[in-house]
Design goal:
This protein has 224 residues and is of the alpha/beta class. Helix content is 29%, strand content 27%.
Protein backbone atom coordinates (compact mmCIF):
# COMPACT_ATOMS: atom_id res chain seq x y z
CA UNK A 1 0.00 0.00 0.00
CA UNK A 2 1.37 3.42 -0.95
CA UNK A 3 1.79 6.07 1.72
CA UNK A 4 -0.50 9.07 1.32
CA UNK A 5 1.49 12.26 1.90
CA UNK A 6 1.37 16.00 1.36
CA UNK A 7 4.15 18.14 -0.12
CA UNK A 8 5.21 21.42 1.48
CA UNK A 9 5.11 23.80 -1.49
CA UNK A 10 7.16 27.00 -1.37
CA UNK A 11 6.60 27.78 -5.09
CA UNK A 12 10.36 27.44 -5.63
CA UNK A 13 12.80 25.07 -7.29
CA UNK A 14 13.69 22.88 -4.30
CA UNK A 15 10.12 21.94 -3.41
CA UNK A 16 9.42 21.36 -7.12
CA UNK A 17 12.43 19.06 -7.46
CA UNK A 18 11.54 17.18 -4.27
CA UNK A 19 7.99 16.69 -5.56
CA UNK A 20 9.36 15.40 -8.85
CA UNK A 21 11.35 12.73 -7.00
CA UNK A 22 8.33 11.72 -4.94
CA UNK A 23 6.08 11.36 -7.95
CA UNK A 24 8.56 8.86 -9.36
CA UNK A 25 8.68 6.87 -6.12
CA UNK A 26 6.07 4.07 -5.93
CA UNK A 27 6.31 4.09 -2.12
CA UNK A 28 4.39 7.36 -1.93
CA UNK A 29 1.17 8.87 -3.20
CA UNK A 30 1.34 12.66 -3.12
CA UNK A 31 -2.27 13.74 -2.67
CA UNK A 32 -1.80 17.48 -2.30
CA UNK A 33 0.35 20.53 -1.68
CA UNK A 34 0.31 22.95 1.25
CA UNK A 35 1.74 26.45 1.63
CA UNK A 36 1.84 29.08 4.36
CA UNK A 37 0.84 32.55 3.20
CA UNK A 38 1.01 35.99 4.79
CA UNK A 39 -2.47 37.28 5.69
CA UNK A 40 -1.32 40.87 5.26
CA UNK A 41 0.20 40.52 1.77
CA UNK A 42 -1.61 37.41 0.45
CA UNK A 43 1.75 36.06 -0.66
CA UNK A 44 4.27 33.37 0.26
CA UNK A 45 6.27 35.21 2.89
CA UNK A 46 9.92 34.66 1.88
CA UNK A 47 9.34 34.18 -1.84
CA UNK A 48 6.94 37.12 -2.22
CA UNK A 49 4.77 35.06 -4.61
CA UNK A 50 1.09 35.92 -5.03
CA UNK A 51 -1.56 33.37 -4.07
CA UNK A 52 -2.95 33.32 -7.62
CA UNK A 53 0.46 32.14 -8.83
CA UNK A 54 0.44 29.34 -6.25
CA UNK A 55 -2.98 28.26 -7.49
CA UNK A 56 -1.78 28.36 -11.10
CA UNK A 57 1.18 26.14 -10.22
CA UNK A 58 -1.03 23.63 -8.42
CA UNK A 59 -3.44 23.52 -11.37
CA UNK A 60 -0.57 23.01 -13.83
CA UNK A 61 0.76 20.15 -11.69
CA UNK A 62 -2.69 18.67 -11.12
CA UNK A 63 -2.71 18.55 -7.32
CA UNK A 64 -5.01 20.27 -4.80
CA UNK A 65 -3.51 23.09 -2.74
CA UNK A 66 -4.11 23.84 0.94
CA UNK A 67 -3.25 27.37 2.08
CA UNK A 68 -2.48 28.12 5.72
CA UNK A 69 -2.70 31.84 6.47
CA UNK A 70 -0.41 33.47 9.02
CA UNK A 71 -0.20 37.03 10.37
CA UNK A 72 2.92 39.07 9.75
CA UNK A 73 4.83 39.02 11.98
CA UNK A 74 3.80 35.64 13.38
CA UNK A 75 4.74 34.35 16.81
CA UNK A 76 6.09 30.82 17.16
CA UNK A 77 3.13 29.99 19.37
CA UNK A 78 0.57 31.00 16.74
CA UNK A 79 2.53 29.32 13.95
CA UNK A 80 2.64 26.06 15.89
CA UNK A 81 -1.05 26.35 16.71
CA UNK A 82 -2.17 26.83 13.10
CA UNK A 83 0.21 24.24 11.71
CA UNK A 84 -0.82 21.82 14.45
CA UNK A 85 -4.46 22.21 13.47
CA UNK A 86 -3.60 21.62 9.82
CA UNK A 87 -1.49 18.56 10.61
CA UNK A 88 -4.25 17.03 12.73
CA UNK A 89 -6.83 17.68 10.02
CA UNK A 90 -4.52 16.07 7.45
CA UNK A 91 -4.07 13.02 9.66
CA UNK A 92 -7.85 12.69 9.91
CA UNK A 93 -7.92 12.57 6.08
CA UNK A 94 -5.59 9.56 6.06
CA UNK A 95 -2.32 11.44 5.49
CA UNK A 96 0.63 9.65 7.12
CA UNK A 97 3.43 12.12 6.37
CA UNK A 98 4.56 15.41 4.89
CA UNK A 99 7.47 16.03 2.55
CA UNK A 100 9.83 19.00 2.40
CA UNK A 101 12.40 20.32 -0.04
CA UNK A 102 15.04 21.05 2.59
CA UNK A 103 18.63 20.32 1.65
CA UNK A 104 21.12 21.13 4.39
CA UNK A 105 19.79 22.98 7.43
CA UNK A 106 19.77 20.51 10.33
CA UNK A 107 17.84 22.76 12.71
CA UNK A 108 15.00 23.17 10.21
CA UNK A 109 14.85 19.42 9.61
CA UNK A 110 14.79 18.70 13.35
CA UNK A 111 12.00 21.19 13.88
CA UNK A 112 9.84 19.62 11.17
CA UNK A 113 10.48 16.09 12.46
CA UNK A 114 9.56 17.06 16.00
CA UNK A 115 6.40 18.86 14.92
CA UNK A 116 5.13 15.85 12.96
CA UNK A 117 6.29 13.32 15.54
CA UNK A 118 3.84 14.84 18.02
CA UNK A 119 1.04 13.87 15.62
CA UNK A 120 2.55 10.44 14.92
CA UNK A 121 3.32 11.45 11.34
CA UNK A 122 6.50 11.17 9.27
CA UNK A 123 8.65 13.97 7.85
CA UNK A 124 10.10 13.07 4.45
CA UNK A 125 13.09 14.79 2.83
CA UNK A 126 13.49 13.50 -0.74
CA UNK A 127 16.49 15.66 -1.70
CA UNK A 128 18.21 16.01 1.68
CA UNK A 129 22.00 16.18 1.43
CA UNK A 130 22.09 16.64 -2.35
CA UNK A 131 25.17 18.51 -3.58
CA UNK A 132 23.96 22.08 -4.00
CA UNK A 133 26.53 22.76 -6.72
CA UNK A 134 25.34 19.87 -8.88
CA UNK A 135 21.62 20.13 -8.12
CA UNK A 136 20.71 23.25 -10.15
CA UNK A 137 22.30 21.75 -13.28
CA UNK A 138 20.31 18.53 -12.81
CA UNK A 139 17.19 20.69 -12.60
CA UNK A 140 18.09 22.60 -15.77
CA UNK A 141 18.84 19.37 -17.65
CA UNK A 142 15.42 18.00 -16.66
CA UNK A 143 13.68 21.11 -18.02
CA UNK A 144 12.83 22.84 -14.74
CA UNK A 145 12.68 26.62 -15.13
CA UNK A 146 12.55 29.17 -12.33
CA UNK A 147 13.23 32.83 -11.78
CA UNK A 148 14.52 34.72 -8.77
CA UNK A 149 11.70 36.42 -6.87
CA UNK A 150 13.55 37.51 -3.74
CA UNK A 151 17.18 38.10 -2.89
CA UNK A 152 19.48 39.51 -0.26
CA UNK A 153 21.29 42.41 -1.95
CA UNK A 154 24.17 42.02 0.50
CA UNK A 155 24.84 38.59 -0.99
CA UNK A 156 23.52 38.76 -4.57
CA UNK A 157 23.42 41.73 -7.00
CA UNK A 158 20.02 43.41 -6.76
CA UNK A 159 19.46 43.36 -10.53
CA UNK A 160 19.35 39.54 -10.47
CA UNK A 161 15.82 39.81 -9.04
CA UNK A 162 13.30 38.82 -11.69
CA UNK A 163 15.87 37.02 -13.82
CA UNK A 164 15.59 33.36 -14.79
CA UNK A 165 17.94 31.05 -12.93
CA UNK A 166 20.25 29.56 -15.56
CA UNK A 167 23.74 28.13 -15.72
CA UNK A 168 24.98 31.50 -16.93
CA UNK A 169 23.35 33.32 -14.04
CA UNK A 170 24.79 30.84 -11.53
CA UNK A 171 28.24 31.43 -12.97
CA UNK A 172 27.80 35.17 -12.41
CA UNK A 173 26.89 34.80 -8.72
CA UNK A 174 29.50 35.82 -6.14
CA UNK A 175 31.78 32.92 -5.18
CA UNK A 176 30.41 32.93 -1.63
CA UNK A 177 26.84 32.29 -2.83
CA UNK A 178 25.37 28.82 -2.45
CA UNK A 179 24.03 27.85 -5.91
CA UNK A 180 20.72 26.75 -4.33
CA UNK A 181 20.46 29.82 -2.08
CA UNK A 182 20.64 27.64 1.02
CA UNK A 183 22.00 30.49 3.15
CA UNK A 184 19.11 32.81 2.29
CA UNK A 185 20.82 34.41 -0.71
CA UNK A 186 17.77 34.09 -2.98
CA UNK A 187 14.40 32.40 -3.47
CA UNK A 188 12.71 31.30 -6.68
CA UNK A 189 9.42 30.69 -8.49
CA UNK A 190 9.04 27.69 -10.80
CA UNK A 191 7.03 28.28 -13.98
CA UNK A 192 7.85 25.20 -16.04
CA UNK A 193 9.29 21.73 -15.68
CA UNK A 194 8.63 18.00 -15.91
CA UNK A 195 5.92 18.33 -13.23
CA UNK A 196 3.84 20.75 -15.25
CA UNK A 197 1.15 19.74 -17.71
CA UNK A 198 1.71 23.15 -19.28
CA UNK A 199 4.12 25.97 -18.56
CA UNK A 200 2.85 29.12 -16.86
CA UNK A 201 2.73 32.25 -19.00
CA UNK A 202 4.14 34.84 -16.65
CA UNK A 203 5.63 38.32 -16.64
CA UNK A 204 7.82 40.16 -14.16
CA UNK A 205 6.38 43.28 -12.60
CA UNK A 206 7.89 45.92 -10.36
CA UNK A 207 10.73 45.45 -7.92
CA UNK A 208 10.44 46.60 -4.32
CA UNK A 209 12.79 46.64 -1.34
CA UNK A 210 11.37 45.56 2.02
CA UNK A 211 12.99 44.37 5.23
CA UNK A 212 16.43 44.52 3.66
CA UNK A 213 15.45 42.25 0.74
CA UNK A 214 14.69 42.88 -2.93
CA UNK A 215 11.46 41.35 -4.32
CA UNK A 216 10.48 40.99 -7.97
CA UNK A 217 6.74 40.72 -8.46
CA UNK A 218 5.60 37.83 -10.68
CA UNK A 219 2.27 38.06 -12.50
CA UNK A 220 0.31 35.88 -14.86
CA UNK A 221 0.84 37.35 -18.30
CA UNK A 222 -2.86 38.13 -18.81
CA UNK A 223 -2.98 40.17 -15.57
CA UNK A 224 -3.76 43.86 -16.33
Amino acid sequence: MTKRILMSWSSGKDSAWALQQLLQNPEFEVVGLFTTVSEEFDRVAMHGVRVELLRAQAAAIGLPLDIITLPSPCTNELYNQRMGTFINDAKARGIIGMAFGDLLLEDVRQYRENQLKDADMTAIFPIWGTDTHALPHAMFDAGLRALITCLDPNKVPADFAGQELTGELLAALPDSTDPCGENGEFHTFVFDGPLFKKSLNIKVGEQVQRDGLVFADVLLADTP
